[in-house]
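sry for the spam today, last one i promise. C-alpha coordinates for design, 81 residues
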Protein backbone atom coordinates (compact mmCIF):
# COMPACT_ATOMS: atom_id res chain seq x y z
CA UNK A 1 0.00 0.00 0.00
CA UNK A 2 1.32 3.44 -0.95
CA UNK A 3 0.71 6.35 1.39
CA UNK A 4 0.89 9.39 -0.85
CA UNK A 5 0.75 12.24 1.68
CA UNK A 6 3.77 13.65 3.43
CA UNK A 7 2.85 16.67 5.56
CA UNK A 8 0.15 18.26 7.67
CA UNK A 9 -3.45 17.83 6.66
CA UNK A 10 -5.67 20.92 6.89
CA UNK A 11 -9.03 19.52 5.82
CA UNK A 12 -10.52 16.06 5.29
CA UNK A 13 -13.76 15.08 3.57
CA UNK A 14 -15.26 11.64 2.90
CA UNK A 15 -17.33 10.96 -0.20
CA UNK A 16 -17.87 8.26 -2.84
CA UNK A 17 -16.23 10.35 -5.55
CA UNK A 18 -16.17 7.61 -8.22
CA UNK A 19 -19.65 6.25 -7.40
CA UNK A 20 -18.45 2.67 -6.86
CA UNK A 21 -20.18 2.28 -3.48
CA UNK A 22 -16.97 2.76 -1.46
CA UNK A 23 -16.12 5.99 0.34
CA UNK A 24 -12.90 7.81 -0.58
CA UNK A 25 -11.13 10.36 1.62
CA UNK A 26 -10.18 13.71 0.07
CA UNK A 27 -7.63 15.75 1.98
CA UNK A 28 -6.04 19.18 1.59
CA UNK A 29 -2.47 19.46 2.82
CA UNK A 30 0.31 21.88 3.75
CA UNK A 31 2.41 20.33 0.97
CA UNK A 32 0.10 22.03 -1.57
CA UNK A 33 -1.62 18.83 -2.71
CA UNK A 34 -5.22 17.70 -2.81
CA UNK A 35 -5.19 13.96 -2.10
CA UNK A 36 -7.88 11.39 -2.78
CA UNK A 37 -7.33 8.17 -0.83
CA UNK A 38 -9.04 4.81 -1.24
CA UNK A 39 -10.85 3.37 1.79
CA UNK A 40 -7.71 1.29 2.57
CA UNK A 41 -5.49 4.40 2.67
CA UNK A 42 -3.81 3.89 -0.71
CA UNK A 43 -3.51 6.82 -3.09
CA UNK A 44 -6.37 7.23 -5.58
CA UNK A 45 -5.05 10.46 -7.08
CA UNK A 46 -3.31 13.68 -6.04
CA UNK A 47 -3.12 17.15 -7.54
CA UNK A 48 -0.49 19.84 -6.90
CA UNK A 49 -1.84 23.36 -6.24
CA UNK A 50 -0.31 26.81 -5.93
CA UNK A 51 -0.43 26.94 -2.09
CA UNK A 52 -1.55 25.13 1.06
CA UNK A 53 -5.00 23.62 0.60
CA UNK A 54 -7.27 24.93 3.35
CA UNK A 55 -10.85 24.11 2.31
CA UNK A 56 -12.53 21.32 0.36
CA UNK A 57 -16.18 20.92 -0.53
CA UNK A 58 -17.64 17.88 -2.28
CA UNK A 59 -21.11 17.52 -3.67
CA UNK A 60 -23.14 16.17 -6.55
CA UNK A 61 -23.39 18.60 -9.41
CA UNK A 62 -25.03 17.47 -12.64
CA UNK A 63 -25.42 13.88 -11.32
CA UNK A 64 -21.72 13.29 -10.60
CA UNK A 65 -19.50 14.20 -7.65
CA UNK A 66 -17.52 17.40 -7.92
CA UNK A 67 -14.68 18.54 -5.69
CA UNK A 68 -13.83 22.16 -4.99
CA UNK A 69 -10.52 22.91 -3.28
CA UNK A 70 -9.48 26.35 -2.06
CA UNK A 71 -5.88 27.33 -1.34
CA UNK A 72 -4.85 29.92 1.21
CA UNK A 73 -2.06 32.42 0.65
CA UNK A 74 -1.22 35.57 -1.28
CA UNK A 75 -2.55 33.98 -4.48
CA UNK A 76 -5.66 32.18 -3.24
CA UNK A 77 -6.99 29.97 -5.99
CA UNK A 78 -10.12 27.84 -6.32
CA UNK A 79 -9.77 24.48 -8.09
CA UNK A 80 -12.67 22.35 -9.30
CA UNK A 81 -12.38 18.68 -10.25
CA1 LIG B 1 -15.71 5.22 -4.35
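last one done:
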Amino acid sequence: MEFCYRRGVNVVKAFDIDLDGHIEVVAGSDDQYVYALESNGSCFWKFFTIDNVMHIKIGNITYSPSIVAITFGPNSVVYAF
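Residues 16-18, 20, 22, 24 surround calcium ion (CB under 6 Å). ok im logging off now
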